[in-house]
Amino acid sequence: MILYFSGTGNSAYLAKRIAEATGDALCFINDCLKRGEAFSDNTQTRLIFVLPTYAWRIPRVVEEWILTSAFARNAEAYFVMNCGDSIGNAPKYVKKLCEKKGFPCRGCAEIVMPENYIAMFSAPDSENARKIVDKARPKLEDVIARILKDQPLAEERTTFLGALLSGPVNKLFYCFAVHDRKFRVDEKCIGCGKCEKTCPLNNITLKEKRPSWHRHCTHCMACITACPTGAIEYGKKSVGQPRYRCPYEE
Length: 250
Ligand SMILES: Cc1cc2nc3c(=O)[nH]c(=O)nc-3n(C[C@H](O)[C@H](O)[C@H](O)COP(=O)(O)O)c2cc1C
Ligand code: SF4
Ligand code: SF4
Hints:
This protein is of the alpha/beta class. It has helices at residues 10-22, 29-35, 60-68, 90-101, 126-148, 160-176, 194-198, 222-226; strands spanning 2-4, 26-28, 40-41, 46-52, 70-71, 76-83, 105-112, 183-185, 204-207, 210-213, 232-234. It has two domains: 2-174, Flavodoxin domain (Rossmann fold); 183-234, Alpha-Beta Plaits, CATH 3.30.70.20. The strands form four sheets. The protein has a five-stranded parallel beta sheet with strand order 2-1-4-6-7, sandwiched between helices. Helix 1 packs parallel to helix 5 (126-148).
């Protein structure tokens, strides 16, 4: 089974390519979180987690969901992480998570995909995004080939910088950067409700046809990207910037 979380389509794209090649079923973690449901299926003996990188680790909200979910005893776990630049030393934390869950860990791969974090950085336009995704394909093919041959994923390099980023910087990031106080909506809002529907954490509600954010955001960027009129801004950072959505994923 392929379990994926995705704010802006990169992980969804990768998960679906892996599913086409392996025939494994797909589970969209966003939907489970939205329904407030943990995973519970003890028949799946191969788990392939396809996840974006948030602050050089897997998203905290997904880690918590995995910890509260019930999987088969001894299910083998592959982690396919995608990022705009680097996953840091995320594999070390993935191994710890596998130990806690009793999963034989089959490795943690890094696939560089387009940057989506428009609350902090600039995202590429659609043409450049396509080039980045095209460049990621050989690594994706390697991951698929290893899964099909029942081999572990290639080990990613660990570095001193990665240790800092995935360790203390990750903690600081969640303390200081991950909040929704800077989200706002302008006059372009047409009250369609797509932001409310898209948020995996039910953090948005519409009041008199205008969205408000309720302080349990994970910064996935799904709402700001999904808005059909570009009415959502994140402070000043997003003004005039392209919203990112994986160009190969509807
Ligand atoms: C909150 C947040 C934190 C991020 N942290 C990192 C990071 O530490 N390293 C990195 O290379 N990319 C980082 N990114 C970029 C995403 O991991 C990357 O664009 C990913 O492919 C997005 O996947 P998605 O479209 O499935 O959501 C971050 C993005 C967000 C929204
Ligand atoms: S409010 Fe927006 S950025 Fe925050 S979790 Fe929901 S969809 Fe993601
Ligand atoms: S998705 Fe955009 S237009 Fe629709 S309700 Fe939300 S902010 Fe308004």
